[in-house]
């Protein structure tokens, strides 16, 4: 199995794209540390959803925007799993508004979780990966980080920042056997998009050359490739998973 005896930390791993990634990696032998916020039942449910793969799975409550809390969780995972091989930065939030109506809290919250949270997790695993001379870091950006989107200045900025961070850290760690990449999903069928009306969904599909909304599994498949040794010579890349939306 591709990820046998490897441990993956997945932030925002209790649902949606994060859970799909966790399932994909676990199905190929990875041990999984799920980081989540919110109700504990959600973390427990995610752990139970991975039970069929017979790998080690633990869930950890962690607000990744908190520098110290992120370090504590990373240290705990290393202690309990014996190390970390893969980091998937997937935690993210939205606070969509036009800049005219966006207040400072809306901006800071999104930057804090999406961008600073990604930095925090990379920062706290950085030395560990350097010492191992091995690691895979994959962060979830977005096509709006490439092309922008009205009403999402904060979200777009956070996702564009992830792209810049990915390329910079990739250059820092390439000589240590650590690859650092990002995926940029387009419209993906998650709890947020599933709540939209059929009219809105149809309008979204009309913009996509592939004529369908993507699935979390579409993203998970690309992340799994980037986490694997098949992608050992791929670093500093941003792969769009968007059905051609941002061509």
TrEMBL record:
Pathway: Lipid metabolism; fatty acid biosynthesis. Keywords: Fatty acid biosynthesis, Fatty acid metabolism, Lipid biosynthesis, Lipid metabolism, NADP, Oxidoreductase, Steroid metabolism. The keyword Cytoplasm does not apply. It is an enzyme of class 1 (oxidoreductase). It catalyses: a (3R)-hydroxyacyl-[ACP] + NADP(+) = a 3-oxoacyl-[ACP] + NADPH + H(+). It comes from the Bacteria. Its EC number is 1.1.1.100. Signal peptide: none annotated. GO terms for molecular function: 3-oxoacyl-[acyl-carrier-protein] reductase (NADPH) activity. Residues 6-186 form the Ketoreductase domain. Belongs to the short-chain dehydrogenases/reductases (SDR) family. Catalyzes the NADPH-dependent reduction of beta-ketoacyl-ACP substrates to beta-hydroxyacyl-ACP products, the first reductive step in the elongation cycle of fatty acid biosynthesis. Homotetramer. This is 3-oxoacyl-[acyl-carrier-protein] reductase.
């Amino acid at each position: 199995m591709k990820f046998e005896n490897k441990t993956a930390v997945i932030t925002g791993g209790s649902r949606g794209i994060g859970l799909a990634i966790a399932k994909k990696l676990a199905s190929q032998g990875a041990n999984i540390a799920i980081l989540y916020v919110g109700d504990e039942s959600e973390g427990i449910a995610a752990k139970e959803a991975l039970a069929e793969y017979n790998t080690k799975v633990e869930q950890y409550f962690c607000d990744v925007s908190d520098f110290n809390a992120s370090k504590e969780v990373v240290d705990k995972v290393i202690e309990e799993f014996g190390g970390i091989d893969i980091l998937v930065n997937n935690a993210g939030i939205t606070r969509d508004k036009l800049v005219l109506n966006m207040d400072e809290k809306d901006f800071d919250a999104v930057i804090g979780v999406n961008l600073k949270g990604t930095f925090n997790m990379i920062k706290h695993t950085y030395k560990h990966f350097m010492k191992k001379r091995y690691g895979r870091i994959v962060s979830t950006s977005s096509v709006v980080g490439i092309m922008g989107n009205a009403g999402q200045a904060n979200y777009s900025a956070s996702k564009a920042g992830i792209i810049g961070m990915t390329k910079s850290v990739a250059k820092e760690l390439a000589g240590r056997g650590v690859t650092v990449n990002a995926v940029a999903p387009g419209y993906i069928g998650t709890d947020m998009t599933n709540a939209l009306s059929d009219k809105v969904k149809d309008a979204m599909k009309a913009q996509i050359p592939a004529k369908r909304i993507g699935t979390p599994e579409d993203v998970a498949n690309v992340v799994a490739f980037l986490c694997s040794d098949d992608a050992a010579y791929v670093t500093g890349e941003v792969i769009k998973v968007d059905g051609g939306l941002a061509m």
